[in-house]
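Morning - pyridoxal-5'-phosphate inputs below, output right after.
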Amino acid sequence: MHDKIRAGTRRQIPAVNTVLDSLDGHDLPRPVVLDVVRRELKRERKRPRISKPAAIVERIQQRLTDLKRSRLQTVINATGVIIHTNLGRAPLASEAVEALSRIAGSYANLEQDLATGSRGQRAGYVEHAMTVLCGSQAAMIVNNCAAALVLIARHFIGEKTEIIISRGEMVQIGGGFRIGEILEASGAVLREVGATNKTNVSDFARAITNRTALILKVHRSNFFMGGFVASPATRDLAALAHKRRIPFVHDLGSGATFDTRKQGLEEHEPTAHEAINEGADLVCFSGDKLFGGPQAGIIAGKKNYIEALKGEPLFRALRCDKLVLAGLQTTVDLHLSASDSTLPVPAFMRLTKDELRARAAAMLVRLRGLPLQISIGRGSGNVGGGSLAQSVIPSVTLDIVPEQCPVQEFAAKLRSSSPPVIAYVSGGAVKLDLRTIFPAQDDTVVDCIRSVSTQAQSA
Ligand SMILES: *Cc1c(COP(=O)(O)O)cnc(C)c1O
């Protein structure tokens, strides 16, 4: 025993080149591989006892595999959550993808006026089309909805520092992003009014002072409150704000630009058009939620406000590039020309259970004979991405109970298949929701399940 340890301590750290030679083929750039090898050997040197060379190589191999897996790649969304922030939110319409790739590999008239040959307006068309879609006087585009809020707060905060907001609307979105904190970071002093469940117009009226810079309404996009609740109508808040000459901003978050009830949902998501009609001076919403475009923040509303926002030096740091603008431009055109049938988000919302069940049945046939119990189950996906928190969309799932390994392990193996398939575990089964799987991916999903279950068998 003692001798063995002594022998171990005498082991040499392998040379970088020796390790490089024994690594299996992978296509990461050589400097990246070299960096991983050097870091791992350095770590090895600090160990009280040096590992066997084979163990070192194996560890490095694993790090490279993990690193490679973390590269941005397409995955199959079998979660049933249509706008899944971790999975990149809205998939773009194919027309938008084509526009993106055309613009991406070429020069474009981004800031060139083709009529005069001089400097033109960036995003001119998109802004124009957005005003038509939102029924507003003007519109502008920034990096995301959070950036829109920052820009708005920075602009309106000056000698007057307070933003009045309902306690029931202090929303947190995703991992640690709180509307309140982002506003405070922009120099605003939040004046919270009302109670968590109830806020009235009179609460806002009482809170208005000569320090009030803004009244902000935040759409409760990712949660909903039921029971003894009340919040003032947009119209009433707008009337109050206008009477007291205070700007009124409505953060819509998910920003529907179509009637969600027409897509088979019970819940109605307020649209930008409605909020403007009801008197919001400015609205903002995300480009990559219900709108179905690339990541962006759209601000629409009164012309003088939009112009002032564009004049803010900060705007320069929040503006979008030609790729985002190309994707948005095509997406807004699709909404306007009512040819939104090619937009994946509303298309996924519209899918009926019968359609989904037919696809599930066809997949089931192709999955016979594997060491799995597999059946068609029920899913309760939702729109996600801070949209329509109340609307659970009844869906259809493939429910898999593997015979050879635990469900969590099977789900993990699906995630490391190629392409990765993101399923979820519920009620003792691995569930794959058909709603968010593109029909063209059904065969790939079947192949992935096959290969994972045969792996599980041989392991
Ligand atoms: C999602 C959301 C935001 C943030 O939007 P991003 O585009 O992700 O920055 C802001 N407000 C509300 C109400 C939201 O739902």
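Note: The first helix runs from residue 2 to 9.

O.
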